[in-house]
alcohol dehydrogenase (Acer yangbiense), 374 residues
Amino acid sequence: MSSSRVISCQAAVAWKAGDALVIEEVQVSPPQPLEIRLKVVCTALCRSDFSAWESQSIFPRIFGHEASGIVESVGEGVTEFKEGDHVLTVFIGECMTCRHCKSGKSNVCQVLGLERRGVMHSDQQTRFSIKGKPVYHYCAVSSFSEYTVVHSGCAVKVSPIAPLEKICLLSCGVAGGLGAAWNVADISEGSTVVIFGLGTVGLAVAHGAKLRGASRIIGVDTNPEKCEKAKAFGVTEVVNSNDCNEPIQQVIKRMTDGGADYSFECIGDTEMITTALQSCCDGWGVTVTLGVPKVKPEIAAHFALFLSGRTLKGSMLGGLKPKSDLPSLVNMYINKEIMIDEFITHNLRFEEINKAFDLMREGKCLRCVIHMPK
């Protein structure tokens, strides 16, 4: 059902980089053609939200992209969704018609790819305002608001029996890690895997590697709390790089008789990409990078690493096509074939959203799920 009314609701607005979010009354415009307006049910704080809040320059802004919700109204031309549908939001859409969407080789939609300017894909305008002044979007979602508007290609209809307070993690972090293990690296049974960074994404990679039958899954981190939790997700050995007296790549190569079959960089540090490459074996070693760097985006690696047969791959949402692949992940969770609950370390009320940022800064959480007002 199309709606022409503006909704006033509560949203957590970032006014300046690094400043605490402020709960404000915002106006949310009705959905335009090919858009839907959602009642956000649950949203989680992802590391990329945190990094952008610390460093980006587009403000005022509503962050949040890892979310679940219920369709409140649909814009003209939307046939896929109706009022009351349960959905996941996604930061990269799937238009189903562009070259990339039809290729079977890519999930980076040419129409609804990563949006960085804080406006909607369709008309380069915002759907949020405060007293007539624009408030900008983040990653085409902006889920730190009771209501939000997204392009219909940036939402995925899911089973109504799936708990929205759990499956919101599949809209980014957990799905991205599983997809990186299964689609991008295509981990083989009996292989050796090393994962740099044991946050949600790194542990989801470990979970995916275990389900693929990897024989050794080595986790590398500097946070003792994360190292302790890692084995529940399939990690067989943990290395705290702060305790090493030599470069960590030398430690890994010695542990694995020349290097791992697969390595994953899940930190967002381009220097660590080189370390991950050096931790792979000659001949067939594959390194996958999933992290988003805040500084120094350029990668430096000696050409001999590639001449010797190593491969470096990038991963966005684990190579998953949102509309094509996420519903099956939701069904896998319903059937107890994949873990989600174990990634949730905190459940917070909307008014406690700044506590989620504090917990992430202190390294005391995997995922904080923020429950929006009912």
Q: What stands out?
A: The radius of gyration is 20 Å. The CA atoms of residues 105 and 319 lie 9 Å apart. The first strand starts at residue 7 and ends at 13. The chain has eleven helices and 17 strands.
